[in-house]
Write a structure and sequence with these properties.
Number of strands: 0
Radius of gyration: 18 Å
Helix content: 55-70%
Largest sheet: none
Strand content: under 5%
Number of helices: 5
Shape: globular
Order of helices and strands: HHHHH
Structural class: mainly alpha
Distance between the termini: 50 Å
Length: 157
């Protein structure tokens, strides 16, 4: 004789966590995009849109749309990680946000992006690896803004 045990787990997608992640990700990538525009316009106008075949010609607008989209997706992942780790205090979330910025810089900007841009034949393909200090700054700012917006809105939306 055999028995079967089933476990059911429900997820409440109406909570604000993923929405706050999207909002925080967009806010963080908007601030980051502004920094990139001021410090290295070619990154926003050529490199980022080149990931999807949208450059040349240089287009800061296309780069910003792609960048905001990436920021929103990474914000949802941040929200999931914050929930998984049961982080709720603003200080904990800020620490996670800064760490998230460093991690996204190392994994995506420094390692994946040079390979991807080289594979698509982008004129803005950086060397591999591309551990550029300005990019680290941009990603840390992204993570900090993401975390602050997330902390303020997670229980409200």
């Amino acid at each position: 004789m055999s028995t079967t045990t089933e476990t059911t787990q429900t997820y409440d997608v109406s909570t604000g966590n993923w929405k706050a992640g999207v909002l925080g990700g967009i806010a963080g990538s908007a601030v980051m995009g502004a920094l990139i525009l001021v410090m290295n316009t070619a990154t926003l106008a050529v490199a980022i849109p080149s990931l999807y075949g949208l450059a040349p010609p240089p287009s800061p607008a296309a780069g910003l749309v792609v960048h905001l989209s990436h920021g929103a997706v990474m914000g949802v992942l941040f929200a999931g990680l914050a929930r998984l780790l049961s982080l709720e205090s603003p200080g904990e979330l800020l620490g996670l946000g800064v760490g998230w910025g460093v991690a996204t810089w190392a994994l995506f900007a420094a390692l994946l992006m040079p390979v991807w841009l080289g594979a698509v034949g982008s004129p803005a393909s950086p060397p591999f690896p591309n551990f550029a200090p300005p990019s680290l700054l941009w990603h840390v700012v992204y993570g900090a803004v993401l975390a602050v917006v997330y902390a303020v809105t997670a229980d409200r939306i």
